[in-house]
Design brief:
Blueprint: H1 6-10, H2 20-32, H3 35-44, H4 47-65, H5 74-96, H6 101-119, H7 126-144, H8 154-175, H9 183-205, H10 210-216, H11 219-244, H12 249-252, H13 255-271, H14 277-295
Helix pairs in contact: 2-11, 2-13, 3-4, 3-6, 3-11, 4-5, 4-9, 4-11, 5-8, 5-9, 6-7, 6-8, 6-13, 6-14, 7-8, 7-14, 13-14
């Protein structure tokens, strides 16, 4: 779910089209629905290998769709490829194997806007301070009330939150850099380089045995992998880029507090995930903190 090209796109927004609200709803559905295939996929295949191959495949599709652009320099690649993809998704995949999909989505998507507020380095307004306090309280409550026997290990929650913080830092760094490629071209190279980094880590840290590839090629694992490539990278990211040409970046970033609701609902309906009442309360606090952080940002010029 890279947002590395946000600033360059939002500066050239076209007149608003009537399809935009429908596109936003579809974006939230796609990205909210990716957490179940991620959870199921990393339960069958080593997590780093699973997400690395997903980014390599998605990056190749975007590279071809963008006209096979030449790579940008290392300075432009590092924030997106290293922080937003390799660090964020590596930690997310490891944590997703230990946390119910709905809670994983809530922690990740609620932490990103809070991390952006912190790393942006500007003096926060009162509403933003309240968002940070709410976010910290929600994460603390979620971690303290999580029981590994119920499928929500605190270490998994911490890994997901740390990965989301890396994503927030990468977002701030990317916004400060000039855009030298089209958004699709930049996203393609971020995905390819980030995927290659994740694949290298997988080769060093994870077992690559014959049964590993057998599990990867099993129909269920391939289905989950294909859903991630399609929903998260190809359809979801294309919609994200299109919406950034129609709406302000802040408006599109509202996905961060819609997607957790979808993930929680799908986790309960399909997987029978039943978070404890305190976990539901913590999730609502986190979603509220993310919403407050987003709506309290200064208005952007369309």
């Amino acid at each position: 779910m890279s947002i590395s090209a946000k600033s360059s796109i939002s500066e050239t927004m076209a007149p608003v089209k009537p399809w935009a609200p429908i596109g936003f709803a579809l974006l939230c559905l796609c990205w909210g629905a990716t957490w179940l295939p991620l959870k199921h996929g990393v339960a069958q295949v080593p997590p780093l290998l699973f997400v690395a191959s997903r980014f390599l495949a998605g990056g190749l599709v975007l590279w071809l769709a963008g006209g096979c652009p030449r790579p940008p320099g290392p300075r432009l690649l590092a924030p997106g490829a290293v922080l937003m993809i390799a660090a964020n998704y590596g930690l997310m995949a490891w944590g997703a194997a230990r946390v119910p999909s709905g809670l994983a989505a809530t922690v990740n998507l609620a932490t990103v806007p809070l991390a952006v507020l912190i790393f942006a380095g500007r003096r926060p307004r009162p509403a933003q301070v309240a968002a940070l306090i709410l976010g910290a309280a929600g994460l603390a409550l979620l971690s303290l009330t999580s029981d590994p026997r119920l499928g929500a290990a605190p270490a998994g929650l911490g890994a997901i939150a740390l990965g989301a913080a890396c994503y927030g830092l990468g977002t701030v760094r990317m916004k400060a850099l000039p855009a030298t490629l089209s958004p699709v071209g930049m996203a393609a190279w971020h995905s390819l380089v980030g995927g290659a980094l994740l694949l290298s880590l997988s080769a060093l840290l994870e077992p690559w045995r014959a049964d590993t590839w057998d599990r990867f090629l099993a129909p269920a694992a391939l289905l989950n992998w294909a859903l991630l490539v399609l929903l998260s990278t190809i359809v979801g990211f294309t919609l994200y880029l299109a919406l950034l040409r129609q709406w302000s970046a802040t408006a599109v970033a509202g996905y961060a507090y819609v997607c957790p609701v979808i993930a929680l609902a799908l986790g309960g309906a399909i997987d029978g995930e039943r978070p404890a009442p305190t976990q539901w309360a913590a999730s609502l606090i986190l979603i509220g903190a993310a919403a407050l952080a987003l709506i309290s940002k200064p208005k952007e010029t369309p």
